[in-house]
Specification:
The protein is of the alpha+beta class. The protein contains eleven helices and 39 strands. A hairpin with a 5-residue loop joins strand 32 and strand 33.
């Protein structure tokens, strides 16, 4: 049997976005292309009876957002297999035939929705202000121009500085004639959510307060197409943050996902019901202390849209929840009754209901199963295996089987963790405390290539969910507010003590620490507060909350709502900044940062690097070009390999 190596990622595939239609499940299959240094995503289908598989699409490198038209004639999707590589809506006859390009937008298409009769498609695009079909830019060579910025939120990680001169549009295209018409146009981004069956109104997401950019969050708007007027649907909870969930078949009741913002950023997402006739808003999951949605972290899944809220009949709906490191399924009702219907040690990644509303086609992952396609019967909980794209890989490679445990953290709280042992047991072996990001996410029952790779190289990996993460109730996640580096730090140290006690085969002189984002913050914090670790790796980290406030794409809101301070309280921000304690550091530190990271900007990594140099601590800074905050998950394939190599080498030389 072979071990899982860094380059094993090139040999593995993942499944996402399954669409169940009649006896067929369409899905995306993504793999790394080593030669072209990119990710290729294709469309496939499988017959649930015969298990026969078929390829669809146009051969483009990126295919996504697959849908079946309501009239059952077309498989639709977005593809960049176009002359300018812009994403456009493509149609492929379900009865057989070649794909045709439906839209031809200069700036491409970001999302789309079918009309109820399948005769048209509403889609989103944008244009440069002042630009028309007659005077559009011919891409003539121009002199460089300054960038003019006048908005609070002017940049976004993974996208860079956002154009300030864009008009954001919703258009409709007729499938038969390809004629298009403009429906909505704003000078800010909006998100098309729903098209009424009679097309008299649209639902779209927009800022909570379009007049005040300092008011955080967004909500769902009802747009009257004839009157060209929009109204928000959540005025009953004026400070709440909401997004679209699902409209029922009768179009008299709408599900929204959101919260009342009582705990700011960390307020649990719940399911709300909006009665169309009475225009009243009611929380339907008030009694369930769970986080609606998927907040598990891993590094393998690509092109994931996530399980959505889905109606199973006119009164009941299905929704996913993050709980104790798993994605569980609950059934809710318009009366507010909630019951758990599926609870297994698995990460339900993506899924869609069959026509019978009782069968769920789902892409799944576990700690030792990278990606598979299943059917789940919601009545019995029975699972039917459909397809494993990594069957040969799994048959020929050895996976480390993680163990699950609970321990007592600070204040005697119950904290959950996982320990990934080395693939080959040794009398004494090194171990790594690996701290997740967020912090409002969680480790769980999902495949993590990096942890398996470290286990194959002889390291044990300690994965803990300290307070501040999701999946353990509202009090647990809110306990970190304004208190970074205190009880969360204690949770991590106590968890490390617990694992070392339970596993005396770990060499206590060779215990390392690593983490990214919040995990990078905590790694920086740890090296300034203890020298118990042999070496450390901090990635896409935070070192100085004061400079983070003005340089991060989410800085002002994050600092205000997470740390409960702002620039008028710099002393408090400095006390929570790892940089303030760098003078105590002795632990060798590797600093890894993406050069295009706008979430935790590169200057954060540079500051801790210089501070460590000033202390004469063994340290190294490695930056990665063309890399945003998500380098470890969706970065360029060659750079993901380089990142892993630097981490392993740092451990090996210390």
């Amino acid at each position: 049997m072979k071990k899982i190596e860094m380059e094993s990622l090139y040999d593995m595939k993942n499944i996402s976005q399954p669409v169940h239609w009649e006896d067929t499940v369409f899905y995306l299959e993504t793999k790394m292309n080593k030669e072209k240094n990119r990710y290729d995503t294709g469309i496939q289908s499988i017959d649930v009876q015969t298990k026969e598989r078929k390829e669809w699409g146009d051969g483009g490198k990126t295919n996504t957002a697959i849908q079946v038209s309501p009239n059952g004639k077309w498989l639709s999707y977005l593809s960049n297999n176009t002359k300018d590589e812009k994403m456009q809506v493509m149609l492929m006859p379900l009865a057989g035939g070649r794909a045709v390009q439906l839209t031809e937008e200069k700036e491409g298409v970001s999302s789309y929705k079918w009309t109820a009769n399948g005769a048209g498609v509403y889609y989103q695009t944008n244009r440069k202000q002042g630009e028309t079909d007659e005077n559009e830019d011919k891409d003539e060579k121009k002199l460089p121009e300054p960038t003019v910025i006048d908005r609070l939120q002017y940049k976004l990680d993974g996208m860079g500085v956002l154009p300030q001169d864009r008009m954001h549009q919703i258009k409709k295209v007729d499938v038969a004639s390809k004629n298009t018409q403009l429906i909505v146009e704003y000078d800010r981004p909006i998100q098309l959510n729903y098209v009424a069956k009679d097309e008299s109104y649209l639902l779209f997401g927009d800022r909570l307060n379009v007049e005040d950019e300092w008011q955080y969050g967004g909500t769902v708007y009802w747009y009257d197409v004839a009157a060209k007027q929009a109204r928000p649907l959540t005025t009953q909870i004026p400070d709440g943050v909401f997004q679209y969930g699902a409209m029922n078949e009768e179009e008299d009741y709408l599900l929204l996902l959101g919260n009342d913002f009582e705990y700011a950023f960390v307020s649990q997402t719940k399911v709300y019901g909006y009665d169309i006739r009475s225009q009243s808003l009611t929380c339907l999951t008030e009694e369930a202390d769970v986080e609606v949605g998927d907040l598990l972290v891993a590094d393998f899944q690509q092109q994931v849209s996530g399980l959505e809220v889905m109606w199973v009949n006119e009164e009941e709906f299905l929704f996913p929840a993050t709980e104790h490191g798993k994605i569980q399924l609950y059934k809710g009702s318009r009366e507010g009754v909630v019951e758990k219907v599926y609870d297994k040690l698995v990460h339900l990644v993506d899924g869609s209901l069959a026509d019978d509303k009782q069968t769920l086609a789902v892409a799944v992952s576990t700690l030792v199963k990278p990606s598979e396609l299943w059917l789940i019967n919601l009545e019995s909980g029975e699972e039917t295996f459909l397809y494993n794209p990594n069957e040969e890989f799994c048959r020929t490679h050895t996976f480390a089987e993680p163990e699950r445990f609970w321990y007592k953290g600070a204040d005697d709280w119950d904290i959950q963790g996982w320990y990934v042992p080395p693939v080959e047991a040794k009398e004494k072996h090194p171990a790594v405390l690996y701290i997740h990001g967020g912090p409002q996410v969680a480790y769980g029952e999902s495949f993590f290539h990096e942890m398996q790779m470290l286990a194959a190289k002889g390291y044990g990996v300690i994965m803990l969910n300290p307070r501040g993460g999701n999946g353990y109730g509202q009090q647990f996640v809110a306990s970190i507010l304004g208190d970074y580096g205190n009880k969360d730090y204690e949770d991590l140290m106590l968890g490390t003590d617990y694992v070392l006690e339970q596993h005396p085969e770990i060499d206590q002189d060779k215990v390392y620490v690593a983490g990214g984002s919040y995990g990078g913050f905590m790694t920086n914090w740890i090296v300034g507060h203890t020298d118990r670790f042999r070496a450390a790796v901090t990635q896409r980290s935070i070192s100085n909350w004061i400079s983070f406030y003005g340089t991060s794409d989410i800085g002002p809101f994050f600092v205000q709502f997470q740390l409960q301070n702002n620039l008028s309280q710099v002393e408090e921000l400095w006390k929570m900044s790892p940089l303030a304690y760098a003078e105590n550091a002795k632990t060798p530190l590797l600093v890894i940062h993406g050069e295009n990271d706008l979430r935790c900007p590169q200057e954060q990594g540079e500051q801790i690097y210089i501070a460590m140099k000033r202390q004469r601590v063994d340290t190294k800074l490695v930056t990665f070009p063309q890399s945003s905050h998500g380098l470890s998950r969706e970065g360029l394939p060659n750079l993901r390999m380089e990142r892993l190599q630097h981490i392993v080498e740092w451990f090996e030389i210390h």
